[in-house]
Amino acid sequence: MQHASAKSNAVQTVFATLITMLSMVAFADVALAQDAAGGVVGNMAGLGAGLPALISNTGADGSTSYSLSLQILALMTAMTVLPSLVLGMTSFTRIIIVLSILRQAMGTQQTPPNQVLIAIALFLTFFIMSPTLTTIYDTAADPYLNGKISAESALSTASGDMKKFMVMNTRKNDLNMFIDLAEEGAVETPDDIPLTVLLPAFITSELKTAFQIGFLLFLPFLVIDMVVASVLMSLGMMMLSPMLVALPFKLLLFVLVDGWSMTVGSLVATYAV
């Protein structure tokens, strides 16, 4: 009995200790929450007091200059949409599609790898877009960095230069289709075309041109596949893969005609800058 009573007293002591510790933790959490709430309120008050200076500063002439923090925020936001702009406003889409179709037509599986194709497409994009990018830097970026023009004026000038490039490389049928769908009415100059109409028209035109070039690249390799398959069938070699036998002939043909130079040169020549 004494042993049972001692065991019961020990259990009660343990429970009492746990309850005390939980109570202390609870009170500490409440105190920390109150202090944090007070700190948040104080910080929000300080942020509200400094918000006008953070957002903009209006000069005596009515111009608006944005603070460095807001400019960094705008730059980081622009970096998130930069891949979409590269895909949608440059020659990258057409080039990567043509190279992917070429690799499939040759039947080389993952050779060249995707990373190599993307690198080739990026370098060719920079080469094709270099006149436009140089114009944008001379007329918009450099004057803005030197404080000669405002951010709005630089953005308007840069978008105008990009519009000229996209309009010159967009099919009229695609452009007219999206203008009719948007009910924009008659458009006199490229600057009058909104980006909401020009971007989908440019992408649609790029896809159509890329598939046309890919079809022309696919034909000679398809002929080689058909010839090899016919020869193997006539010899009774049913178990031998025609793609495996045709691959060396495809590579030989592609190397003899200097296929990479012809493909890259044809892609670059399809753009008007």
What's the helical proportion of residues?
over 70%
Biggest β-sheet strands, sense, barrel: 2 strands, antiparallel
How many DSSP H or I helices? Answer: 9
**Total beta strand runs:** 2
Unreliable stretches covering 5 or more consecutive residues:
1-55
Taken as a percent bin, the fraction of beta residues is under 5%
How do the helices and strands follow one another from N- to C-terminus?
HEEHHHHHHHH
Strand order of the largest sheet: 1-2
SS-based structural class? mainly alpha
Distance between the termini: 101 Å
What is the gyration radius calculated from CA atoms? 33 Å
Mean pLDDT: 75
Shape: elongated
Task: Write up what this structure looks like.
This protein is an all-alpha fold and 273 residues long. It is built from 9 helices and 2 strands, in the order H-E-E-H-H-H-H-H-H-H-H. Strands 1-2 form a two-stranded antiparallel sheet. A hairpin with a 5-residue loop joins strand 1 (57-58) and strand 2. The protein is elongated and about 80 Å long.
Task: Please provide a brief summary of the model.
By secondary structure, this protein is an all-alpha fold. The protein has nine helices and two strands, in the order αββαααααααα.
Explain the layout of strands and helices.
Elements: H1 2-55, E1 57-58, E2 64-65, H2 68-89, H3 92-106, H4 114-145, H5 151-168, H6 172-182, H7 195-235, H8 242-256, H9 259-269
List keywords for this structure.
273 residues; elongated; two-stranded antiparallel ribbon; mainly alpha; disordered N terminus
